[in-house]
Specification:
By secondary structure, the protein is of the alpha+beta class. The chain has twelve helices and ten strands. About 50% of the residues lie in helices and about 15% in strands. The strands form three sheets. Strands 1-4-5-8 form a four-stranded mixed β-sheet. α4 crosses α8, α5 packs antiparallel against α8 (about 235-270) and α8 runs antiparallel to α9. The structure holds acetoacetyl-coenzyme A (CAA).
Length: about 400
């Protein structure tokens, strides 16, 4: 085992850290207060080449590995969760799925501009009436000649109102829809520009206020057959592989949030005095800092193990789901404690910890709730759930 980061990984980490410190941190409080997505952020990330960090150079990316992707997510979420979410949907849920499941034409037409940051992408599985119960979706895609006609609504989609390309999951088989047989679900690349597609933003969110979250409505949208990803019966499996990518980025980002809680709290503890002594000298405060460190260090080992499996091209659903559960849980606890350490100041947005606290909540819900992750782990230990290889998967890391 080698726990050292290699030169490429260190480069990705320091590049992301620099971009986050210079371009996100200085303005994040303003955008968060205004519930506004920073319109310049995507251009900044594109110019830094980060939007294709782990996509091979052949398809316009930086050609780095999955640990580098995790490190970038960590640095982004250190600045703000909304920045990390871009990597979760654009790379974790969409681009790496196209890398694994897309055909050469799809990779050339969609993956390459996405990896270069010329087009932004996201993932549409969740609907107003179906979140954890992915088979409960009602969007349909029935064949009409050389096209499919899509009807339905996707909800709680990050970047819905900003992205150009969506991976949409829909029932293409009427009988299987009635029987809730997942092999009746197909996956399609849908462009925002296709006639019948409308998008909007969701207002009034508890957290990730500087992020764009929205809905996608499809009314009689004609999607060419060439835009079907994988085979007609593989949509559900593709959605699950997407989540193997997305959950990994959420886990890695969460350790960035924990680190932000640690650094902010340590700084506060060095200066703030109570009972004639700095906070750092009080044992109950020390306990909270120790618990943050525990979550940070153990969480990193979990997501890095999942990243290592991804680099080897080995199925990692179990490890990724566990890391997502642990890291998001620990981030929630760390943010809760960071507010506590800051006392009344933590209750105002004079300090960033109230934003960390609000932001930490979403990750225990999106990309598979804590409860879904727990059920998966229980089923693994009970032997009810076993991972078998799918026809295709996200490829391991190969140096360009
Ligand atoms: N890779 C490849 N194949 C997979 C797979 C994976 N990761 N996971 C499952 N499969 C395959 C299985 O092998 C199985 O294949 P066969 O039928 O050939 O045996 C098939 O898919 C069905 O698998 P399961 O039996 O595991 O399916 P299930 O119905 O038991 O799954 C569930 C239940 C785990 C709860 C699943 O529905 C789930 O993960 N739900 C949560 C959905 C979720 O996370 N939604 C969040 C959406 S994203 C978001 O919120 C953010 C945003 O901004 C877009």
């Amino acid at each position: 085992m080698n726990f050292e980061l290699n030169e490429d990984q260190k480069m990705a980490q320091s590049l992301a850290r620099e971009v986050a410190a210079k371009k996100i941190a200085p303005t994040i409080q303003e955008f968060d207060r205004a519930h506004k997505f920073d319109p310049t952020l995507l251009t900044t990330l594109k110019e830094a080449d980060l939007l294709g960090v782990c996509i091979p150079e052949k398809y316009g990316g930086m050609g780095l590995d999955y640990i580098s992707l995790g490190l970038v997510c960590e640095e982004m979420e250190y600045a703000d969760t909304s920045a990390r979410v871009i990597f979760s949907v654009h790379i974790g849920l969409n681009s790496i799925t196209l890398l694994g499941w897309g055909n050469e034409e799809q990779k050339e037409k969609y993956l390459t501009p996405q990896a270069k940051g010329e087009k932004i992408s996201t993932f549409g599985l969740t609907e107003p009436g179906a979140g954890s119960d992915a088979v409960g979706i009602t969007t349909t895609a029935y064949q009409d000649g050389d096209s499919f006609i899509l009807n339905g609504e996707k909800m709680w989609i990050s970047l819905a109102d900003v992205a150009d390309n969506f991976l949409i999951f829909a029932w293409s088989d009427r009988d299987k829809k009635e029987k809730r047989d997942h092999s009746g679900i197909s996956c399609f690349i849908v462009e925002k520009e296709f006639e019948g597609v409308t998008t909007g933003s969701i207002e009034g969110k508890l957290g990730v206020r500087a992020g764009n979250t929205g809905w996608i409505s499809m009314q009689d949208v004609k999607v060419p057959k060439a835009n079907m990803v994988g085979n007609p019966d593989e949509g559900f499996k593709i959605a699950m592989t997407c989540l193997d990518g997305g959950r990994y980025t959420v886990a890695a980002g969460s350790t960035g949030l924990i680190k932000a809680c640690i650094d902010t709290s340590v700084e506060y503890c060095q200066t703030r005095k109570t009972f004639e002594s700095e906070l750092r000298n009080h044992q109950l405060v020390k306990e909270m800092l120790a618990e943050m460190e525990y979550g940070y260090q153990a969480g990193r080992l979990l997501w890095m193990k999942a990243g290592w499996l991804k680099n080897m091209g080995v199925r990692n659903t179990r490890e990724t789901a566990l890391s997502k559960w642990f890291c998001t849980d620990q981030a929630e606890k760390a943010a809760y404690n960071a507010v506590q350490i800051h006392g009344a100041y933590g209750f105002s947005d004079e300090y960033p910890v109230e934003r960390f606290f609000r932001n930490s909540k979403g990750a225990a819900i999106y990309e598979g709730t804590r409860e879904i992750q727990k059920l998966m782990q229980a089923d693994y230990v009970l032997g009810i759930r076993k991972d078998k290889e799918a026809r295709l998967s996200i490829p391991g890391y190969e140096e360009d």
